UniProtKB/TrEMBL annotation, chain A:
Superkingdom as given in the UniProt entry: Eukaryota
Compartment(s) of residence: Nucleus
Key word RNA-binding present: yes
Sm domain span: 26-102
Entries under SUPFAM superfamilies matching the protein: Sm-like ribonucleoproteins
Swiss-Prot/TrEMBL keywords: mRNA processing, mRNA splicing, Nucleus, Ribonucleoprotein, RNA-binding, Spliceosome
Gene name in the database record: LSM8
Assigned protein family: Belongs to the snRNP Sm proteins family.
Pfam families: LSM (PF01423)
Name of this chain's protein: U6 snRNA-associated Sm-like protein LSm8
Oligomeric and partner information: LSm subunits form a heteromer with a doughnut shape.
One annotated GO molecular function: mRNA binding
Coiled coil: none
UniProtKB/TrEMBL annotation, chain B:
Entry's Gene Ontology cellular component terms: catalytic step 2 spliceosome; Lsm1-7-Pat1 complex; P-body; precatalytic spliceosome; U4/U6 x U5 tri-snRNP complex; U6 snRNP
Entries under Gene3D superfamilies matching the protein: 2.30.30.100
Protein name (Swiss-Prot/TrEMBL): Sm-like protein LSM2
InterPro entries: LSM_dom_sf (IPR010920), Sm (IPR047575), Sm_dom_euk/arc (IPR001163), U6_snRNA_Lsm2 (IPR016654)
Example of a GO MF term: RNA binding
Residue ranges crossing the lipid bilayer per the database entry: none
Ranges where the Sm domain occurs: 2-76
Role summary: Component of LSM protein complexes, which are involved in RNA processing.
UniProt-annotated location(s): Nucleus
SMART domains linked to this entry: Sm
Keywords, comma-separated and alphabetical: mRNA processing, mRNA splicing, Nucleus, Ribonucleoprotein, RNA-binding, Spliceosome
Gene Ontology biological process: mRNA splicing, via spliceosome
Record-stated family: Belongs to the snRNP Sm proteins family.
Length: 122, 117
């Protein structure tokens, strides 16, 4: 059984979930409920990456399938860059949002103008 | 542990989390963990026109390391201070009652200590 905080993520589609063994805490915000859901990730460098969560670990490293980056700019509409199967290191992750597909479909990305998100400053 | 317990008691309250990239997210506190990662439900970004990046997100997981502030509901905190903790490094003076100190004893003890006793 893998030890806690190890970066041994399995790269097949049936990812195991790693738990710390000192989990006497009542509340654990696992990302289990988001596995196989489409999520929107905000990274520390201000990027927004959308994809299907396939796996995660205690360090919040994640495996994202069918991912694409949404680039916001003030001059043109939202651009989508296809990325594919990605691992994002937990150090670099800020927010993981559960994407509501209906809401997302109702958005007109070509009309959205926004400044890119600022990078995280500790 | 202290803040983890504090946030556990706040579950169900409406909070606004301000992140270190200046993004502010309002939502209902769903859960918290040992790293102070926060899960919010029914989320909306505070300045939605400036930050349309999360328009289609209603529930989110916020990594503890990117939280700058957690703004609590005004009546959710007991503001009357009865007991407090003061970090030693910020103390300038501790004023003692005049008759609470045996000055001569203190002098001797201090000299002894300074001598390396």
């Amino acid at each position: 059984m893998p030890t806690k905080c190890s970066m041994k993520l399995l790269l097949n589609y049936h990812c195991n979930l790693f738990r710390t063994f000192n989990c006497s805490m009542a509340t654990t915000t696992g990302l289990e409920s988001l596995v196989d859901q489409i999520i929107s990730v905000i990274t520390n460098d201000g990027r927004n990456i959308v994809g299907v969560l396939k796996g995660f670990d205690q360090a919040t490293n994640i495996i994202l399938d069918e991912s694409h980056e949404r680039v916001f700019s003030t001059k043109e509409g939202v651009q989508q860059h296809v990325l594919g199967l990605y691992i994002i290191r937990g150090d670099n992750i800020g927010v993981i949002g559960e994407l509501d597909e209906e809401l997302d479909a109702s958005l007109d990305f070509s009309k959205l103008r926004a400044h890119p998100l600022k990078p995280v400053v500790h | 542990m202290l803040f983890f317990s504090y946030f556990k008691d706040l579950v169900g309250q409406e909070v606004t989390v301000e992140l270190k990239n200046d993004l502010a997210i309002r939502g209902t506190l769903h859960s918290v963990d040992q790293y102070l990662n926060i899960k919010l439900e029914n989320t909306r970004v505070v300045d939605q026109d400036k930050y349309p990046h999360m328009l289609s997100v209603r529930n989110c997981f916020i990594r503890g390391s990117v939280v700058r502030y957690v703004q609590l509901p005004p009546d959710g905190v007991d503001l009357s201070v009865r007991n407090c903790f003061i970090r030693g490094s910020v103390v300038r003076y501790v004023q003692l009652p005049p008759d609470g100190v045996d000055v001569d004893l203190l002098h001797d003890a201090a000299r002894r200590e300074a001598r390396g006793g």
